[in-house]
Amino acid sequence: MATPTDQIAALMKRRNLSAADLARLTGLSAASISRILSGVQRPKRSTLGKIAEALDSTADALDPPPTPSEQNLSHATRRALDCFAAVLRLDRDSALVARMLAEALATRGRPVAFARAEEPVGPVGPVGSVGR
Asked: ∠15-18-21 over CA atoms, to 5°?
């Protein structure tokens, strides 16, 4: 699933907009846009609305409402998983560590089997899904 950051970046690329252009169109600071695009800051719904309007999109298209299972996650857990998603964009070893931590959070401390570094890696880390 694409994150709001991924969606925003894709729409910016499609429209050939820089971060400075998006900041100007939205009235947000260049620093805020930079933090959002780097995954450091998750935009509030009102901020997503401004960005969506500037990109001829909707806030729901950039960040769909949570599914029922996602609604059960605490804000802190969602924030941690968002941070781990940003780390997954890093090198393979960092992604493995992030995935292990995300699985531990998602399973709320229940034992899970972790993949070894030499196991095949899928698009977001070792083959398998979080919380299995």
From this structure: 90
CA distance 62 to 49: 9
- Phi, psi torsion values for 126, nearest 5 degrees: -55, 150
Supply the pTM of this predicted model.
0.52
Per-residue model confidence as pLDDT tens digits over 57-82: 998 888 876 666 666 666 777 777 77
State how far the alpha carbon of 80 is from the alpha carbons of 15, 31, 103, 119, 121, in Å. Answer: 31, 22, 11, 25, 22
Phi/psi for 125 (5° steps) reads 125, -165
- Could you tell me which CATH class the domain 4-62 is placed in? mainly alpha
Q: Is 39 left (phi over 0), alpha (psi -120 to 50) or beta?
A: left
Domain range list for the chain: 4-62, 68-112
CA angle 2, 66, 23 (to 5 degrees): 55
